[in-house]
Each structure stands twice: as C-alpha cells, then as structure tokens.
Amino acid sequence: MPRHLNTAFAAPWDLAPTPGGDDNPLVRRLEGFAPLSQADRTLLLSHCANARSYPAQTDLARDREEPDGILVVLEGFACWHQYRQTGARQITAYLVPGDLCEWDTALIGRTDHAVSTISPCRIARISREALRNSYGAQTGLAKALRMSSLVYEATLREWVVNVGCRTALERIAHLFCELHVRLDAVGLASGLGFDLPLTQGDLAVTVGLSNVHVNRSLQALRRDRFIDLRGRRLTILDWAGLSNLAEFNPGYLRLGRAGER
Amino acid sequence: MPRHLNTAFAAPWDLAPTPGGDDNPLVRRLEGFAPLSQADRTLLLSHCANARSYPAQTDLARDREEPDGILVVLEGFACWHQYRQTGARQITAYLVPGDLCEWDTALIGRTDHAVSTISPCRIARISREALRNSYGAQTGLAKALRMSSLVYEATLREWVVNVGCRTALERIAHLFCELHVRLDAVGLASGLGFDLPLTQGDLAVTVGLSNVHVNRSLQALRRDRFIDLRGRRLTILDWAGLSNLAEFNPGYLRLGRAGER
DNA sequence: TTATCCAGTTAACCTAAGATAATGTCGGGT
DNA sequence: ACCCGACATTATCTTAGGTTAACTGGATAA
Fold it and tell me: What is the pTM of this model?
C-alpha cells in the first residue's frame, strides 16, 4: 500500500484498497470512450492486478525492462516533463488515475523527455503483445485506445494555447478547471473539491511561470473567491467564474456531458 | 495546379506536378517509420490520387462531408490553430507535406480548434474504412500510423516546452530547426535552405510572442549570422549555432539520423 | 527541545516582452 | 505612373512577470 504525502486527507483510493471491476479507473475511463466487451474488461483488469507501487518523484522511464505497450496510472499523480540544460524544467502533461501513456521504446528511449511520479502511485504496464488479442480495429478496446490518444493530443494542444497566449491567472484557472473535470470523471472529486498533490513549484513549471508569480496569482484567485486551496486540497468556489475567466471549454476532453456544473 | 504565393522560388512540387511512387511525401514519411508492404503503398497512392487543392487561409474542418479518417498534406503548409474570444490566436501545430492528422468527427466536431491551410495546399482525405484493410496491428502501415501519432504527440510536448520556458530567441530558433529537419525529411530543403510560407505574424502566434518582438528577434538572428530570411525563404547559416542556441535535439521527430548536419 | 527542511509568502527591484502607432518597402493591379 | 494592400521595420512607452533574497510556519527528525 503506497503511503501518500497527504494521508490526512484520506483519498478515495485509500478507502478502496483493491480496485476491481467498475471502480478500476482505467476501465471506467476507456468505457467513457467506447463500449468494451467483457473480454476487453477482464483483459484490462487482469493486467492491472500486476500494478506496482512507486514512491513520489520517481522516474518511470528508467526501469525499462518492459516491452512496448501502455503504462496505466491507477492511483496518484504522474507527469511528462523535460529538463533543460539550464536546469529549467517544464511539465508537459499530467497523468491522473485512469490515464495511460503509450510506451514505445523506439520513441521514448533517447529523448530528454521523462515520465515521473509526482505523488506515490500505483502503475500498471500492459505490453502491446497483450493488447493485440482484441486489437482488430473494430473492437471497442481499440477504438477506446485510439480515442484516448486523440484526447491526449487535444489536451496537449490546449496546453500550448495555455502557455502560448493566456495570462498567468487564466493559465492557472484553466489548469484547475481541466484537472477538476478529469478527476471528476474517475470519481476523484467530491463536488467541486479534489486533492491536488502539487506544490506551487510544480504549478509554476506546468504553466510556464515563476514560483513567485504563481504564488501571487493563487492569492488573487483566493482573494476573489474563485478557489480555496489549503494543504493539498483544492476547492473551486465559483465554477462559472473560474471557467469563464479561463475560457475553459471541456469539449476537448471528450467526457460526454462533463463540464455542466 | 495550385498557385503558390511564392512562385518566384519554384518549390520542388511545382517541378514535379504529379507525385506518384516514391516522391509521394506521405509514403516517404511513413516508410521512415516502418516498412510498408506493396499493398500498403498502392493503397496510399490510390487515395492520394484523389487529393484536392485548397487556397491559402482555408478552414479544412468546415466541409466535413468526409467520414472519420486521416487528412494528408501533400503540398503546402497547413496548421492546427485556435482562436480565443479575445481575438488572440495560437497555432499549435504545423502540417507540412507528408504529415497527416487523425480526423475523428466525434473528437474534432465541437472543439474550437481548427485545421486550416496557410499556403495553397494539396490535401487528400483517407477514410478509416479505407485503411481498415491493412489495419491489423501487425502490418507495417498500422505501425507507421501509430508512430506518426506518437511523433505528433512528442512534437506537441516539445512545443509546450518551447513556449513554456524558452526565451524569444530560443523559441524561434527551435522552430526553425524543427521545420528544417521535417522539411528535409520529405525532400523540401535544399541544403540548409527551405521555403517558409509564414509571415512574421504567423510566427508570432506560433511561438507565443507579439509581431513586433518576433521582428526584433529575427533581426537579432540575422545580425548574429544565424539565419538568412528574405522573401519567403529561410536559410540557416549556422546550424550548429542555431541548434545549440535552441537546445534543439531532433530525437523526438524519429527520423533516423536526421539532425546530423 | 532544538535543528532542519520544505513549502509558502512578501517585498524591492528589474527586464523581457507587449501595445500602439508611425513609417518604410515591395509587388500587383489599373 | 500611380495607388493600394500586405508585411516589415522602427521608435516609444507600458506592463506582466522574473529575480533575488529574506522571512514565516509547519512537519519531521535528533
């Protein structure tokens, strides 16, 4: 059982130690994209049973004993990020429970991009070999995986827009809106609140700002009663205001009627 | 025959009016990712034969008579971009000859992201139905398409890094390095020079800067003899210097030994 | 109990880049 | 030869956000 930084907050997955069946976030997520056959579901569940725990701040690329396939986050926060030679760092994506990332050693191997945990995580790896059974283009699983990849791309485009042409306040607001929708989709939000295991420094390198300016902006968001952020818990006090500020439109996440709050 | 803005420069595709066989940029591009069967190649070529011409500045999403599938650029520059309500605009990706983009009406339909031509283009659409024939996960085509998607994702991550934590000079330098490598891979560069049908305004919304600052930065790059940019032609005068300035590492493009210049 | 560490906060100052707008250049159309 | 529109360039002033560094407070460890 992984020990979380913020055990005080009793994250949902601490209460349900062995996710199986419908509370498996991967199955839940993929079924949002396309209906899965019973065979698909049991395939996924059986591979998730082999998930391993990783401590916070751990590079998932380094132990590359696994062949090509996908890497699935079942609990905790992970991220794609890149270090520059200057020491600067940029987070380019978050992986929250139910998210997966395509793992192609041919592609990942040599780049300076890395995938790491942020908080302690449970992560499963499923080889492409294992997926191949139900991998005709017609099956629901194949379609769901394709959709998952398209949503990931759309999210990246949204992030380019975020750092490319939004103000500090808008960037942070947009990120918070996105994270809430994504976490809510896998049952990790309670109303407008959710656990957010990120430091202000993490936020800064996500959103392309300095620590100090993130701090200032968070205070502004608090002062104007958009959010409440204490400890590692974020509550959105004014969804309409925040999403309006950010021009947040959840369509790119393809989660059905999410975003109607 | 599309009329190009810069006919004065006689782009390669003007000299070879009917790309077929090996000078088809799509086939050339995909074969860089995985070996294709003869059936794969003829399939691709036959669909490229139905390509249509589009003038510059044309939204490719609007005429959505085609079903899901991929959209292939054979000639010209296109881009993904997004308008904000404020009128601001952000380009999130370029599509150059040989590039494709997955077209999923379920996904694209409602988002505010659009795909448009920049210069006049020849573009083919291939339905997913048509691809399904050789779409077992084992075939080369399927693998090449998957790689293509992974490369697109990696490029997007790189762009997030670009706008997230690089200076104006570095951003532009990085973009130029990337474009050169990509165009060179489909034979559209002659040495270190290539046609670049982008205005400074286009560059600005790509790289998250103002028109004016792009202008200043270009002058600096010219003054320091990194580049020569006149008309719509860019020549990199000092590849080592420019790629070093940008910390450009072409690995993410997965083009074999590209970048060794 | 104190020392240490880490995250968060604040303040003073600085700079890269934005905004605006005037001016220049060039090619195309008439 | 003239005008026009699209880009590019330049100058000016303004501002969002960066940098540095000091200080706080809670949590853990010794």
Answer: 0.91
